[in-house]
Write a structure and sequence with these properties.
This protein has 426 residues and is mostly beta strands. The protein has a 16-stranded parallel beta sheet with strand order 2-4-6-9-12-14-16-18-20-23-25-27-30-33-37-41. Strands 21, 24, 26, 28, 31, 34, 35, 38 and 42 form a 9-stranded mixed beta sheet that branches. Strands 7-10-13-15-17-19-22 form a 7-stranded parallel beta sheet, with no helix packed on it. The longest helix is centred in the last third of the chain and has 4 residues, at 372-375.
Length: 426
């Protein structure tokens, strides 16, 4: 075994494959390639990073002589490995452990093929282009992008980008000028609450999986598909993305920023608000479509007057048998309360029957959505009949109507009916 200690640099200068097979321990300092074709032991030799240290790749710009790392590198939790790459190189092998890896690329031809499926730490690209020449599975770890980093799926050794799918446990960045480019980026598997301040361009698709929140504060152009957990759009100065956002079953879109076009599918939820505690408005510069069973969620506050989460939609609002989830945060509803869900100039259309959660504001009151398509408002009105009790005797001859006024021959299902002029629960 080769053990590197001390703050200095150890150059491995043999121009060919080295043969030591007992592995390498990197405790401190720098382990460097002194020739483009040297290796750190045998191809199967593991490098164990036991302390904060550096691996330096031979710096060369040649298409026929590309420095390559093939080792399995295990980074101990709490330790940081810095990889300084050359102008052209290939980072292969495996990455394991739970520590931190910082890597930078000074030129445009450093390609990453690394198997990261067992890595549970933070993989941070600190500068240049992060060129993924194969799809990566970093679903147990974190991808962090530094200032100016351009991350894309590419064809190795080429300038051509390609569509591949990579899995990321957590996506984080505080840099506003980093970019996710071509391909599918499936993120969120760790279930953490993460913030990504960067961009994803029109060639990228961001797919949110896993519990937890992903807060987007940048201005992007790519599509977003929410499958699980929440995505918060919090850019208030421009569209968080001009690409389409689709909220699928189990997904949740929230925030008080701007976005362009939103579709909420059955089981998906759209909400608004500045935080979990402060109501607010989401601005949609395009269209909002809520499919059958899609949920429009609004929190309602206030005692003397109501305040609620709302949606300022410039385009069309198309509602097809939606679910309105109206959560009273404090106080209780009173007759005449108004919940203005949709503001802006967009036309509101409603087809099918909406459902409400809760079914009624409180006992003796009803939801009135008769003007929803004209003023975007749902009101609380007194129930003109009121439920006087629960009757178990449905076998007698009665005049029976459903709540829409249709006369029925008998009661076949559980529900609310008008029997002899009285509202009865069966």
């Amino acid at each position: 075994m080769l053990v590197k200690t001390g703050a200095g640099q150890l150059n491995i200068t043999y121009g060919g494959a080295n043969t030591w097979s007992g592995g390498t321990q990197l405790v401190a300092g720098t382990l460097a390639m002194g020739a483009w074709n040297t290796t750190f032991g045998a191809a199967t030799s593991k490098i164990e990073v036991k302390g904060n240290s550096t691996i330096r790749v031979f710096d060369q710009n040649s298409t026929s002589a590309v420095p390559t790392i093939n080792n399995t590198i295990d980074v101990m939790k709490g330790k940081t490995l810095t990889i300084e790459t050359g102008k052209r190189c290939a980072i292969r092998g495996k990455l394991t452990g739970a520590g931190n890896v910082k890597i930078s690329f000074p030129y445009v031809r450093g390609d990453v093929y690394t198997n990261m499926s067992a890595f549970e730490g933070v993989f941070e690209s600190t500068g240049g282009q992060l060129r993924l020449a194969s799809a990566i599975d970093l679903s147990k770890g974190t991808l962090k992008l530094g200032a100016g980093v351009y991350a894309a799926h590419v064809k190795g050794g080429s300038g051509d980008e390609q569509v591949l799918t990579s899995k990321i446990g957590s996506l984080v960045s505080t840099a506003t000028d980093c970019t996710l480019a071509s391909g599918n980026w499936n993120v969120g598997y760790l279930g953490n609450n993460d913030t990504y301040a960067g961009m994803f361009n029109s060639a990228a698709t961001l797919n949110k999986y896993g519990e937890g929140d992903l807060t987007l504060t940048g201005s992007s152009q790519g599509k977003v598909n929410i499958h699980k957990g929440r995505v918060l759009v919090n850019n208030t100065s421009a569209e968080t993305t001009t690409g389409a956002i689709t909220v699928n079953n189990g997904g949740f879109l929230a925030g008080a920023g701007k976005t362009a076009t939103v579709t909420v599918k059955k089981g998906g939820v759209i909400s608004a608000g500045k935080s979990d505690y402060v109501t607010g408005t989401m601005t949609i510069t395009g269209n909002l479509s809520v499919n059958m069973g899609g949920v429009v969620y609004s929190r309602v506050r206030g005692t003397s007057s109501t305040r609620n989460d709302a949606f300022n939609v410039a385009g069309r609002v198309a509602l097809v048998s939606p679910v309105f989830r109206l959560e009273r945060v404090n106080g209780e509803y009173s007759e005449g309360d108004e919940i203005k869900l949709f503001t802006g100039d967009g036309q509101v259309t409603l087809s099918g029957e909406p459902q409400f959660e809760p079914a009624v504001p409180k006992t003796g009151y009803l939801w009135d959505y008769s003007t929803l398509t004209t003023d975007g408002t749902i009101r609380v009105i007194a129930d003109p009949v009121g439920i006087e009790g629960i009757e178990a005797d449905a076998d007698k001859d009665h005049d029976i109507f459903d709540v829409s006024g249709r006369k029925l021959r008998n009661v076949t299902n559980k529900g609310v009916y008008i029997i002899n002029g009285k509202k009865v629960v069966k």
